[in-house]
Every structure is written in structure tokens, then in C-alpha cells.
Amino acid sequence: MSISASYPPAFRRMINDGDPKDIEPVLDKDKDIHIPVIDLERLNKEILREACKEWGIFRLENHGVPLELTSQLQEISESLLSLPFEEKRELFAAVNSPLSYFWGTPALNRSGDALKRGGTQASNVNMLEGFNVPLSKLPASTCCDDGAQHSKLESFRVLIEEYGKHITRIAVSLFEAIAQTLNLDLSGDRRSELLSESTGIIRVYRYPRSSSVDAAGEALGMEVHTDSSVISILKEDETGGLEIMKGEEWFRVKPVANTLIINLGDMMQAISDDEYKSVKHRVKKKDMTRERHSVGYFVFPERDCVIKSSNYKPFTYSEFEAQVQVDVQALGTKVGLPRFHPKSPLFL
Ligand SMILES: O=C(O)CCC(=O)C(=O)O
Ligand SMILES: [Fe+2]
């Protein structure tokens, strides 16, 4: 099977199926940047505070996720993602599970299906595909068939569940430490209201090996965005492509083996009263000869927990999410926190 048969048809005309050696290397214009490093076994609150305030993103080492688990998960994910497109689609539709397969956009609805985009962005295809996995629904999802692909899917489910336990543990520890740096009161159930484990989602992404490039000779993987989460945790492979905005400039974050990338999302920005920032980021692939694989984890407040802060009108995560979906469908893009800013002309 040619590799492009596993890509969504909308990607195929943009994919070069030739010998990777024939693909011209791309000029590398963006600058590299070293983001702060946090050691989970020896958490230093001052370094953590600085990383959240100045960067909104940091690298995590000594996180305790077994290497074996990550590589098994990567292997099975790659194997499922490289199935022929139609087979992948049918497999995920057939198992009647909360898992979904998506492509062309990271903006999904609550069922994990791609949102139709409006506005001038309607035709912008993000060159990515992936599986969306809501962790709390995972134990209930069962496989109905003992075919080879279904048993692969079952192994994927088991590995994701295990990975999800580790990553949830990390998110909770980091959130508690970050809350201390903000002197947040987490008494009673407040911790699990602000960071609700049951909302955790994992997304396994694949960015095609080579694709059409922009004027700068770079392939758009994922458009510029901030995450809506409290905390996001990214495991990327060694291909690279993640970029962050610092000041008014874009910088490339180089991959480092055995580490995770933590970024703060919009909910953390609001909870911290804008003290900590939800970092703007994107994926732009420069190495056209290889696919990029990454695994993202996103965790949110409880749906009806009210987030109060001085710069935004009080809102629940449900309201925020609904507004994002309305904006993506009407304007083609997320507006995010400015929608809830009382002084903003965007305030509804
Ligand atoms: O795949 C990546 O490296 C980035 C993913 C990301 O930013 C997201 O899913 O929000
Ligand atoms: Fe993101």
C-alpha cells in the first residue's frame, strides 16, 4: 500500500509520495528556544512560578511514565494510523465507542467529531489526523469483534488507559504545586472542581511526512492557538515542529527524549487572574521526510464549576466551550478568553 492511501483524501494532493530523498530540505528560519525545565521528583516552586509566569510552557523531566509504555503506545498508534483511510474510519465508527478518528482540524465537538468551520478559514486544512480518547469513558468501551484490527484497537485502549493514569497523576501533582505558587485555596472539593480528572482527553496525532508548504517553505501542521484546558501535557517524537510565541516572535521548541512538554491553557490563565499565561503555539513541520507523531493530554475544570477572576465575567467551562464552538463555526477560529472580557468589544 502506498503511504498516501492511509491519509485522508483531502491530504493526498498535498502529499509527495516520492522518495523522501527527493524532497528538498526546507530553509530553517525560526529560532530555537530552550524552555524552562522542571524536575517532577524535585519540584522547585520558584522555578515553577517563573516558568508559569514568564513562559506558560515548560519541559518536565523525571515524570515517571515508563519508557516501555510510551514506546508501546507509539507503536500501536502508528500502526492504527497507517491503516488505509477508509478502514480507519470504519473501524472507529463500527466499535460504537467514545473513541473517534478525526482529520484536517483539531477543533472537535463534544462527541469528538470535527467541527465545520466558517468564515475565511473554512478552507484551511490542518495537515493532521488523529484519535480522540475521552479517558473517563474508556473503561466502558468494549470491542465487539475479534478481527485483527479490533484486537489492535483493544491493545490501544489498554495502553491509553495505562498512559492516562500516569499522565493524570502528573497533571494533578503539577496543578497542586502551581496552586501553591498562586496561594489558591484548594480546600474541600475545590481541587477536583478546578482540575477535574474525569474531563481528561487524550489525542494521538499524526502529521503527514511531507505536504504542501507555505511561502516560507514550511508545512502547516496545526494552526496557531491556545489550549482551552487547565493544563496540557504533550509527548512528542524526535521530529520537531512545535513552536511557541514569546514576545511577538515565534520560536521552535526542540524535542528532548524522555521528557514531556507542559503548557498552561486558558482555564489556568483565568484561574490565575492572568498572572500565568496560556501560551500561543502551533506546529510547523520542517522535516518533510518524516511523519510527526505526538500524544496530547488535556484536562479541564468540572463543566459547571464557576471560574471567577477579576479580568473576566464569571463563566463555567461549559459556557466557554460552547462559545469556542460557536466561534469556530461562525468565524472559523477560536476567540477564547477575550469573549469573556467585560471591556472587550467581543463581549457578548
Ligand atoms: O501535536 C503537537 O505537537 C501539538 C498539539 C497541540 O498543540 C494541541 O493538540 O493542542
Ligand atoms: Fe495546543
UniProtKB/TrEMBL annotation:
Iron as UniProt keyword: yes
SUPFAM superfamilies (alphabetical): Clavaminate synthase-like (SSF51197)
The keyword Metal-binding belongs to this UniProt entry's keyword annotation: yes
GO function terms (MF aspect): metal ion binding; oxidoreductase activity
Fe2OG dioxygenase domain sequence ranges: 197-301
UniProt keyword annotations, A-Z: Iron, Metal-binding, Oxidoreductase
Family label: Belongs to the iron/ascorbate-dependent oxidoreductase family.
Family annotation (PANTHER family): 2-OXOGLUTARATE (2OG) AND FE(II)-DEPENDENT OXYGENASE SUPERFAMILY PROTEIN-RELATED (PTHR47990)
Protein name: Fe2OG dioxygenase domain-containing protein
Species whose genome carries this gene: Eruca vesicaria subsp. sativa
